[in-house]
């Protein structure tokens, strides 16, 4: 029997019978200070039905150097080393590489420490003098698979935690209208990201009422459908709220939102379309309509819904945000009493309609809306979305983000 070399104890040893099991070659770091015990391990490996390449480390310091150089498939660790013993030895291996499986070796009188080591993180333990080749092979393979399962479970748990944290963060960024008591408006909002399991998307909206009881409404759409677009949409919505409460309105509001977009976007080609409204309060007992201030920055028009009719309104538009072409002007539209304005993003009408590959489009959406014109605000909004979804169902349904917001004045 040859004496083990301190660095490379055994290379590629297989079963002495010549019948080799169908396992890939494993690498083992044997951490054992006693040469006789190391030779016994070599004999066990030589008789085991698996190829094992062994590196022998006679101290913990030596083992730490080996772990820094390469990760073995398994560590066979003596718990009584000159420079480390007991759980401290196990901890030092874990501190060097927490992903490597460890099987500990104990003496006949120290079996209790083996069980303690397993409780502390080792995958298994073996008692010197009671180990045969099959036991060693099984212990190594079990340790490797158990550690792999532990790492997968830990990674899955971390992924689930991140998903929950992301969901909480996204939920906190979702819009919630900021209105005074008795605000004088009814709001119906629907929001549907296209990404599976997402709460936020590049479409966004907000409603803010200032101290003069004017209700400021924004709806927008960042080009794209990923998390970067969702983050940019949230940034624009928050900026709109802050600027509105600070008294910034009209064209200046658009210019500031344009600055925010250009500062926050991840690429030069990213832009956003937006539409904003400023809705004055309706005095109690008044039967008059209102003149609504509208600014469009490349965004689709809106639906005027009420009195059993629906009309498409499309005030003059300025350029989308982010194109460095900023010049946005306010325009007025009439909002009759008992009518609502329905703002939307293009995901509602860019889906297919029927079995032919034709888009629903704005005209198709208007026709669909008119077929539900007699419904009240919430029912009208839901029927419009459901109708667009049903028309696109045969070709995969609606695949774009959707934001829909209906605003109707009521007596304050």
Automatic annotation (TrEMBL):
The record, for InterPro entries, names: Bact_Sigma-Reg, CheY-like_superfamily, PPM-type-like_dom_sf, PPM-type_phosphatase-like_dom, Sig_transdc_resp-reg_receiver
Q: Which Gene3D superfamilies does the UniProt record give? A: 3.40.50.2300, PPM-type phosphatase domain
Q: Supply the alphabetized keyword list.
A: Hydrolase, Phosphoprotein
User: What Pfam families does UniProt report for this protein, alphabetically?
Assistant: Response_reg, SpoIIE
A GO molecular function for this record?
phosphatase activity
Q: What does the record list as GO biological process? A: phosphorelay signal transduction system
| UniProt key word Cell membrane | no
Q: Which residues carry this modification: 4-aspartylphosphate?
A: 78
- Per the database record, which ranges form the Response regulatory domain? 27-143
Annotated PROSITE patterns = RESPONSE_REGULATORY
The answer, when asked if Plastid is one of the entry's keywords, is no
What is the protein name for this chain? Fused response regulator/phosphatase
The source organism is Mycobacterium pseudoshottsii
């Amino acid at each position: 029997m040859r004496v083990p070399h301190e660095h490379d104890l055994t290379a590629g040893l297989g079963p002495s019978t010549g019948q080799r099991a169908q396992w890939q070659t494993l690498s083992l770091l044997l951490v054992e200070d006693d040469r006789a015990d190391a030779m016994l391990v070599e004999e066990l490996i030589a008789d085991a039905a698996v190829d094992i390449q062994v590196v022998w480390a006679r101290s913990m310091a030596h083992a730490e150097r080996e772990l820094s150089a390469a990760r073995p498939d398994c560590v066979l660790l003596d718990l009584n080393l000159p420079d480390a013993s007991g759980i401290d030895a196990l901890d030092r291996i874990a501190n060097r590489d927490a992903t490597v499986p460890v099987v500990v070796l104990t003496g006949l009188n120290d079996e209790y420490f083996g069980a303690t080591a397993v409780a502390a993180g080792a995958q298994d333990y073996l008692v010197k003098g009671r180990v045969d080749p099959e036991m060693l092979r099984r212990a190594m393979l079990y340790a490797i698979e158990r550690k792999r399962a532990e790492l997968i479970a830990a990674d899955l748990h971390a992924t689930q935690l991140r998903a929950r944290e992301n969901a909480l963060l996204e939920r906190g960024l979702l819009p919630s209208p900021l209105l005074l008591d008795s605000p004088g408006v009814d709001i119906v909002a629907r929001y549907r990201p296209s990404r599976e399991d997402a709460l936020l998307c590049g479409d966004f909206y907000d409603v803010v009422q200032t101290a003069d009881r004017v209700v400021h409404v924004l709806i927008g759409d960042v080009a794209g459908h990923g998390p970067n677009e969702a983050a940019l949409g949230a940034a624009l919505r928050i900026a709109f709220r802050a600027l509105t409460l600070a008294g910034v309105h009209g064209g200046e509001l658009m210019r500031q939102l344009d600055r925010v977009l250009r500062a926050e976007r991840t690429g030069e080609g990213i832009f956003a379309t937006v539409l904003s409204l400023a809705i004055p309060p309706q005095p109690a007992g008044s039967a008059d309509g209102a003149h609504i201030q509208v600014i469009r920055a490349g965004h689709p028009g809106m639906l005027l819904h009420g009195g059993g009719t629906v009309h498409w309104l499309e005030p003059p538009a300025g350029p989308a945000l982010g194109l460095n072409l900023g010049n946005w002007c306010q325009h007025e539209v009439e909002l009759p009493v008992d009518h609502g304005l329905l703002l939307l993003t293009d995901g509602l009408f860019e889906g297919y309609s029927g079995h032919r590959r034709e888009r629903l489009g704005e005209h198709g959406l208007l026709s669909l809306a008119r077929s539900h014109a007699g419904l009240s605000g919430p029912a009208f909004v839901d029927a419009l979305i459901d109708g667009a979804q049903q028309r696109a169902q045969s070709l995969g349904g609606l695949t774009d983000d959707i934001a829909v917001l209906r605003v109707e004045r009521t007596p304050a």
